[in-house]
Amino acid sequence: MKRRSLKNLTVLEIASHKLALRLARAEKNKDKLKQQKKDWQTRNKEKVVAQKREWVVNNPEIIRQSRKEWQLANPEKLKAIRAKMKKRRAETQPEKVRAWKLFEHAIARGRIVRQPCRVCGDVKSHGHHADYSRPYDVDWLCAAHHREEHRRLLKEKTDPLGLFD
């Protein structure tokens, strides 16, 4: 950018000129700043993971909304991902899969009657397994309270001392 005399310019023109210079400098240093940020993140992986985890725990609505938007925009990818996850879960967590299948089968056969949410009384409830070795022993929770319970368990698992409260 060519230098010009600022003597005969208005305050607005001077501010505009200074802003243009600042933006030009920022654009020039953009790649350098990106690399510095990447280097810092590489050196401080644990901090970055902890910050991301804390953000996710504290912003469930934003996460849920963006996930929902992606799912609507990518139905085929979602189907493939779910099939892959189902297969992997069957291999890595057979006890959970067994408990879920036995529980679903018992509901379908009428051996277990769906109960309302123990917190709010909503009749549309899920069975939450606290212990997968006892597939018929569940805590009945609506979708919102079930999510809340899993969020609480995740927070308990990742922050057992309650340092991020």
Question: What's a concise summary of this model?
Answer:
The chain has helices at 11-43, 45-58, 60-73, 75-92, 94-109, 143-158, and strands spanning 125-129, 138-142. It has 165 residues and is mainly alpha-helical. Among the domains are: 49-92, no CATH class; 95-165, no CATH class.
Give keywords.
165 residues, mainly alpha, two-stranded antiparallel sheet, elongated
Could you explain how this protein is built, in words?
This protein has 165 residues and is mainly alpha-helical. Among the domains are: 49-92, no CATH class; 95-165, no CATH class. It has 6 helices and 2 strands. The chain has a two-stranded antiparallel sheet with strand order 1-2. A hairpin with an 8-residue loop joins strand 1 (125-129) and strand 2 (138-142). The longest helix is centred in the first third of the chain and has 33 residues, at 11-43.
